[in-house]
């Protein structure tokens, strides 16, 4: 099976979906480690419960962002992954990380890119008045949420989504996002892929 390292910063519900899927050997990928930029988060607890090794690399423990980036890349490299999945990891991966994991790092984003990139994809779509939004699974490049798109899922914005600042909308997005991410990671792992002129094609 393909070796996956998953990076998280929070609740880790996408991670949980991957852990559940990977429990079936036919899935074609195994989660060999889970990394985070902070301790004491539900995502790490989920990994521990599943018996998956974890590591934490905090920005505050390093002299600068470049040193943190290198340490994160080293921590990931210790598990020799085929794919890295940023699943609710709320830090920008730096140049050294991307040099080492170019075309091997996936991110999931809670909006239909290239609309509403950044840390507040759900809130920004709602504030803009978008009527549809969703999620995007893409490869990570040097920009913020600009890399080659693998797949997207669409979610309708409902009139009362404004009432709770986007919480219910985000939950509906996450339902679509989890199954999209599980599907895409499994296909990439089982079928292989190549990226040409931003187009991701399955198969070897
Ligand atoms: C997901 O919706 C993910 O797309 C989003 O955080 C959530 C994490 O949920 N990521 C970003 O906004 C990245 N800019 P989870 O921790 O329950 O998987």
UniProtKB/TrEMBL annotation:
Belongs to the GART family. Catalyzes the transfer of a formyl group from 10-formyltetrahydrofolate to 5-phospho-ribosyl-glycinamide (GAR), producing 5-phospho-ribosyl-N-formylglycinamide (FGAR) and tetrahydrofolate. The active site is at residue 109. Its EC number is 2.1.2.2. This is Phosphoribosylglycinamide formyltransferase. NCBIfam families: PurN (TIGR00639). The keyword Mitochondrion does not apply. It comes from the Bacteria. SUPFAM superfamilies: Formyltransferase (SSF53328). Residues 3-184 form the Formyl transferase N-terminal domain. N(1)-(5-phospho-beta-D-ribosyl)glycinamide binds at residues 12-14. Keywords: Purine biosynthesis, Transferase. The keyword Nucleus does not apply. It catalyses: N(1)-(5-phospho-beta-D-ribosyl)glycinamide + (6R)-10-formyltetrahydrofolate = N(2)-formyl-N(1)-(5-phospho-beta-D-ribosyl)glycinamide + (6S)-5,6,7,8-tetrahydrofolate + H(+). (6R)-10-formyltetrahydrofolate binds at residues 65, 90-93, 107. Pfam families: Formyl_trans_N (PF00551). The record marks 145 as: Raises pKa of active site His. Pathway: Purine metabolism; IMP biosynthesis via de novo pathway; N(2)-formyl-N(1)-(5-phospho-D-ribosyl)glycinamide from N(1)-(5-phospho-D-ribosyl)glycinamide (10-formyl THF route): step 1/1.
